[in-house]
Amino acid sequence: MELLIILSVAISLLAVHVDGRSSCVRITKSHPCQQFYFHFDNEGNTFKNQSNVFNVTAKLSNSKRESFEAFFCVVFYPPCGASVDYLLPNIRTPHVVPCQEFCTSTWKLWRRMFIKKKIPQDSAWPWGLRCESLPRKDCIKRSAYGTWKYLHKHSKDDNVIPILRDDDDEIDDKPPRLTSEQIIPRRYDVIDQGNSKLFRGWADVQGTGAANDYCRVIGKRKKQFLACALAGSVGQDHRYVSRMGFDAGLKDTWYMRDANNDGRDDYCRCVGNSTVSRISCMKAERDGFRSSPLVGGSQYSFDLIGSDGCFGQEVNPFTGL
């Protein structure tokens, strides 16, 4: 049924004819991207099944709708052929992909519209579309004045790492910079290596800027907990832990990464079932994970925006991608 809905949306949006020399397709006036350019790559991309976002933004004011459509058009229907020359004159063989900052500004606007209930509460940011995975140079963006630009190099804030957050619209934190003398070495004397079928690996829960803390799941089922042997610590006691019986998440969906931009790697995983699922993260604190005896709180500390429907999506345990 979902596939039929997606197909019907695509058919209603598009009336095209193909340029025989390539996969470049001409867009007709019925397509929302026609206001920006005239051809798109028919090969599409991994996000094209999320093109129903145009139905969500269609009800917004003209300026807001145009801002969303400019970004989503480049993502879902990337320009090609003569349209690239039209958007980016005098740029030889540009890499037609949206810039990270273009994505971040669009996501901030999406969040504001969602909070103001201008966007339906059951509408999610497209699954799999993560701003931090997009390039910061050799990419395209659109200014507030409606002009298209091609970025050849990073901005001056090269060390800023934008992360999709669910607790703040501002993204301006910077990771700490340490010298080799300041980095605390890893521990290689840990006896209990943890459950090999669940997460185990190096992370940075201390916020030092180096993934030198060894984290793994100890025990099984109701007695399992996440424990990290911190760099610089001694002994075999489990001090930096989660609650007993914590939810490890659906198989192969777990990973550790700084998901809220506070410098510490959080434990994130997909929770739920085939009908309703989301990525929920257990926040790393100074004295342990949220939900642990010393910290308290919920193991479901915060959910990632746009992660609805994560069921069945396997990820890299160290990047979440």
Automatic annotation (TrEMBL):
What InterPro entries does the database record attribute to this sequence? Answer: Frizzled_dom (IPR020067), Frizzled_dom_sf (IPR036790)
Residue stretches making up the FZ domain: 65-142
Signal sequence residues:
1-20
Q: Keyword annotations for this protein?
A: Disulfide bond, Signal
Protein name, please? FZ domain-containing protein
Q: What organism is recorded for this protein?
A: Mizuhopecten yessoensis
